[in-house]
Amino acid sequence: MSRLSNPGVLRSDSDAEARYVMKVVMCGDWAVGKTSLVRRFVENRFDHDYKPSIGVNIVVKIVDVGQKKVKLDIFDTGGQERDRPLRQRYYKGASAAVFVYDMTRAESAVSVQNRWLAEVEAVIPQGFERMVIANKADLGGERAVSEYAGQQLAERIGAIYTETSALDGRNVEQAFIELAARLIKKHYPEA
Predict the structure, then answer these.
(1) pLDDT per residue as tens digits for the range 27-41
(2) What is the pLDDT of residues 108-120, one digit of tens each?
(3) What is the tens place of the pLDDT at every residue in 74-83?
(4) Which residues are CB-neighbours of 158 under 8 A, at least 6 positions away?
């Protein structure tokens, strides 16, 4: 994945194929698995060595939604406070925000509503699609946030909800495909 300090974009397919382009920003506390989710979705792999994202990583993946090719420009933002000014520049023009929390760390779920939503809404006040992802479903025995609590959080902020595991790939591709389908329906209803 490309780092901002080394500009470039990781591409999974040819841009020429896609008629629809959607910008998606990944938001959430450090170590909730944002980069791992993106890597699982784009490259279908998981790295066991945790390295915090610095700034913003940008990746591109073209997905099929029905008969439509949709290019998702995914901005994987660093979750540390020092990254805030940089993150906010990349929120502009986003079609969707994916709010990720670690289901084994309750404070990361609280941060979605108390920190991340406000940070995104300060830049994009309305009109963006919202998804809440409870990640690390493979650690179900260590769960600190119930599925019901996660669903209630998503409902409060007007988001769709899913549970994933970047480690084993559970629901990762389906989450991004569902988001792309909602974006097509919202922005291109005639398509």
Answers:
(1) 999 999 999 999 999
(2) 999 999 999 999 9
(3) 999 876 676 6
(4) 130
Sheet holding 20-27, edge to edge: 10-11, 56-65, 68-77, 20-27, 96-102, 129-135, 160-163
Domains of the chain are 10-187 (3.40.50.300)
Backbone angles phi, psi at 55, to 5 degrees: 75, -120
How many whole angstroms separate alpha carbon 79 and alpha carbon 88? 12
Summarised one tens digit per residue, pLDDT across range 162-174 is 999 999 999 999 9
Q: Choose between 133 and 126: higher pLDDT.
A: 133
User: What does the alpha-carbon distance between residue 88 and residue 101 come to, in Å, rounded to a whole number?
Assistant: 19
CA distance 34 to 168: 14
Give the contacts of 86 (CB within 8 A, at least 6 positions apart). 4, 55, 56, 77, 78
Contacts of residue 170, Cβ cutoff 8 Å, sequence gap at least 6? 137, 138, 163, 164
Measured over the CA atoms of residue 86, residue 91, residue 96 and residue 100, the dihedral's sign is: positive
Write out 136-188 in H/E/C secondary structure: CHHHHHHCCCCHHHHHHHHHHCCCEEEECCCCCCCCHHHHHHHHHHHHHHHHC
